[in-house]
Structure formats: structure tokens, C-alpha cells
Amino acid sequence: MNFPVSDLTSYQELIEQQGLKSQTNIISLDKIIVDIILSEKTGFSRSQQVWCLIRQRIVDGCASVVDIDYLDVRLMPQLNRIIAENSIYDYLENQLHLSISHAFKEITIDNTSEQDKILIDIGKDH
Predict the structure, then answer these.
(1) What span, in angstroms and rounded, lies between the C-alpha atoms of 86 and 90?
(2) What span, in angstroms and rounded, lies between the C-alpha atoms of 10 and 90?
(3) Pfam families attached here (predicted)?
(4) Which of 54, 102, 111, 121 gets the highest tally of CB atoms within 10 A of its CB?
(5) What residue segments make up the domains of the chain, in order of their start?
(6) Are 112 and 122 in contact (CB under 8 A)?
(7) Contact indicator for 57, 65 with CB cutoff of 8 Å
(8) How far apart are CA 119 and CA 58, in angstroms?
(9) 51 burial level (CB within 10 Å; 0-12, 13-18, 19+)
(10) Contact indicator for 96, 75 with CB cutoff of 8 Å
(11) Euclidean distance between the first and final Cα of the chain, in Å?
């Protein structure tokens, strides 16, 4: 999906607008080298260094979202767990003074993976 900047709402903004309680847990934050499969999936160049960020979102006490993000290390070499727990959009715009013109977000619905079973509150039958 390609979201125009005028319609771009960060996770934190959405939670505040909806009046929900939220907690973000950082599962992992690692620098990785893009391989051919990840390059085809994300558009990053092969052999480029990116951050692989996996976050668990707990909304109103229920672990309901797993976010997996790939971020260009060149744009944010100092990314850390504190920044990732808060708002990456806020960090880019207000700390690094970068303008966000658009965002690509892939939203998928898949069969439950082993990682999902650990990170998301789902029924035992799934």
C-alpha cells in the first residue's frame, strides 16, 4: 500500500485518537544484510544494510499485533530500543528533521506461525 503523507498516521497517533491503552515491546532490533529474497520483498538493494525491527503491540492488555519493519541504516544509524518503543515517525520527523512523503506498508493475514503463537494472544485452537 502507498499511503499519501496527508493520510499518514503513526501507530502512536492512532492509539491516542482511539483512546486506547498501548504498550510496545521490542522483540528484536538487529542490523542485517539484505539478501535476494528480502530485496525482492522490500525493494532494498541486495547487500544493503538495514535494521530488522520486530515489535509486539499490546492494545488494551491484549497482545494483538506483531510489526516487522525493515529500515535503512543510512537514514537512522543511531536507531535504538528506546526510539523503537516510541515513534519512529516522530524520530524521523522531529529528531532527524526528515520529511516523510509516503510509506509502504504490507498488511498480511496468514496462518498462525510459531512466532505468532508466542507473541499474540490467540485461542488455543489456532
Answers:
(1) 8
(2) 8
(3) UTRA
(4) 54
(5) 2-104
(6) yes
(7) yes
(8) 10
(9) buried
(10) yes
(11) 28
- CA-to-CA distance for 91 and 81, rounded, in angstroms? 12
pLDDT tens-digit profile of 40-84?
Answer: 999 999 999 999 999 998 888 888 888 899 999 999 999 999 999
Location of C-alpha cell 520483498: 41
Half-sphere exposure of 77 (CA within 13 A, CB side): 1
Cell of 16: 491516542
Average pLDDT, the chain: 83
pLDDT recorded at residue 9: 57
3-class SS string, the chain: CEEEHHHCCCHHHHHHHHCCCEEEEEEEEEEEECCHHHHHHHCCCCCCEEEEEEEEEEECCEEEEEEEEEEECCCCCCCCHHHHHCCHHHHHHHHCCCCCCEEECCCCCCCCCHHHHHHCCCCCCC
- Class (C level, CATH) for 2-104: alpha beta
Chain position carrying cell 522483540? 27
Phi, psi of 67 (to 5 degrees): -100, 130
